[in-house]
Amino acid sequence: MISSVFVLLRQVPKKWDANENMVMSFRVSDLQMLLGFVGRSKSGLKHELVTRALQLVQFDCSPEVFKKIKELYETRYAKKSSEVAQPQPPQHRSPEALSIHSSYDRGSTVARTSISTTNIDYPALYGKYLNGLGRLPPKVAKPEVRLVKLPFYTTLDELLKPTELVPQNNEKLQESPCIFALTPRQVELIRNSRELQPGVKSVQVVLRICYTDTSSPQEDQYPPNIAVKVNHSYCSVPGYYPSNKPGVEPKRPCRPINLTHLMYLSAATNRITVTWGNYGKSYSVGLYLVRQMTSAELLQRLKTIGIKHPELCKALVKEKLRLDPDSEIATTGVRVSLICPLVKMRLSVPCRAETCAHLQCFDAVFYLQMNEKKPTWMCPVCDKPAPYDQLIIDGLLSKILTECEDADEIEYLVDGSWCPIRAEKERSCSPQCPILVLGSSDVNGLLPTPNGNGENGKATADVVDLTLDSSSSEEEEEEDEEDDDDDEGPQPKRRCSYEKGLVSAC
Q1: What is the pTM of this model?
Q2: How much is the pLDDT for 23?
Q3: Which 3-state string (H, E, C) describes 88-132?
Q4: CA-wise closest residue to 161 among 133, 180, 175, 184
Q5: Phi, psi dihedral angles at 108 (to 5 degrees)
Q6: Of 206, 255, 467, 471, which is most buried, counting CB atoms within 10 Å of its CB?
Q7: What is the pLDDT of residue 330?
């Protein structure tokens, strides 16, 4: 096995030499046909075409390429090939022809010998590649850096794949240029797109920067001292959020940088220069043609594809309240508020992440608006990630909101049903007992009109103290029984010492 591989590797250079000789004899038209056959560029001077063809022979040594070279050579020198196959007397061959083509005859003879005597499976040796052609194995492809998908941006085209920012020297401040041009279709998409606000198109060319990490999709992350220059103008980069906490560094919202307003919307090339601080971490940049979405558009999309059927929500409630045999405490119900925890208002579009373990919802309208301004995508109930593609609209709670308008809280029961929980009415500030007007001639007919007149000609009455309950009356009777003076009879009731006015009976 080892000897056969050795013989194989010895035969390959001979084949290269033979084909190199054939290529050297080609005219411009032959070189263009060969390069067009393998999908290479056919433009340039003859020496450039020859260089490309020789590189093709050296690095793309497939049977198809060899066969095409031989075919072109035999077509070019058909008569010469026939003379080699059927030798003629030397006097019939011109000395000029011998002096020009003798080397190529030997090359073609070697090529025919090696092809006929050795059956080499080049694709099996080197592997299959584009267009079915075999070539030498390239370097192992490095895994590509991937960026996370952003809900508010729909990618239309990838103008520049994430490319690592490589420092050119030992300086802390580095510059990395990039030159590209837009296609006519891309220019039309930008020009015909609607305006989100004055001067801001919905279709944009954005720059995204992240860590050079191929293990997982990366979030946008700016390097220190970042500055972006488009053609001849600097582009504004989001600033830092102010921090009110002492000792805490302010954070910068890392999001795509819109370059559209500074670009040439034509076939002209655009030059982008990224200035960045080289402090040990590796960063990659990418250019994308995107369509920016609004929170209203994302809400409409969520209403179209993200509503969970009420019956499925009901089954989830039952699952939550199902009796756990390992638990000593049986849950008979769970309360859910109809007030959004974000804005403390009644829910309009109840929403939660499908990965959340709770039944409490928040309002999708305000949640999307807040993430449009400052994207965090964190659940306001459990403070865990709640990305857009995991959001659902609770169909059961949406139905409850339309049926229960006079309560701010409900309770789910074990069987999946629900009941409203209305706030207990505050106790009345008025006393439980009626208020009596002492000394009045008529207190709603409760007091009899006494005989005799009091001061100022108004009737005075003996008023019974209603605050005395039965127990106090019994105590008074006992005291009366214990009194030594039994002949005087029962003592009269005590008069109220209050003057005219209002007194609570409580």
Answers
A1: 0.56
A2: 79
A3: CCHHHCCHHHHHHHHHHHHHHHHHHHHHHHCCCCHHHHHCECHHH
A4: 180
A5: -70, -35
A6: 206
A7: 63
